[in-house]
Amino acid sequence: MSIQNSHFSIGPAWSGLAAAATVALASATMAGVTPAGAGSASDWESKNNFATRLIADTVPWQDRQKALVAGVHIKLDEGWKTYWRYPGDSGIPPRFDWSGSGNLKQARVLWPAPTRYRDAAGLSIGYKNEVIFPILIEPVNAGQPIELRLKMEFAVCAEICIPAEADLKLTVGEGGFFSRSYEPLLSRYLGRVPGKQTSGSGFSVSQTKAELFGNAPYLSVDARFPEGTKGADLFIEGPEDFYLAPAEPVDRRSDGTVRFKVDLTKGDDPKDLKGKTVTLTLVTKTAQAETTWRIK
Fold it and tell me: Whose CA is closest to 25, among 38, 12, 14?
């Protein structure tokens, strides 16, 4: 279901404002979302070392001219980080509970490409300073406000890790016409969400190998990145509830190919990977892509 909202402009005169508002209200109501649903934000919820809020706006996304997108916005103190859906050697992935929401049919979490960090606890995967998790939201009843209620559990870490919680509320679909636009902020993080790896993306996986038996089991992936890009990295996620040690780069070639290897002696029983599918997320400083590999 595509949720759309028409653009409207505000003229210098009150008559222009009234006309624009009338047209916008009619168009947006036909599309199923009131125009004031764009540009909403909750208050910041500040705690030690971090602050959280919800934002929402209509944003172009894939084949949708205007998708209704919320954002879980986290700001972190200097030196602190939080985690991606696969946190690495340590950490806790964020968990999102929308069950207290009203008129919410779907809330699909999108994950911006993360960064790897090394510290005394090992290798972690996540974000420092700030992150927004875009959420594609869809109402049960089009044209009615969505009452977002999020209870989130996550972790923030510096030299120590602290379990964290947030309880956030936001009504999307009512308010004034002078709401601030959050489209640029949401678009920035939507632009860091990996899309499917295609032949024209500059990303490819040229070779994979799985050795699941013996004394030194491993996974090996040769990933090619767009020429001239920096920060080439690969994250390999195992099946649900299966721990994989983070992939490490072991060889870099002049054509942009990097070989990554996963030491399977550090995770769960490697034999359980036979016939399973793992997710490969390829990232650089400026682009990212995602694909899958079924291990035979």
Answer: 38
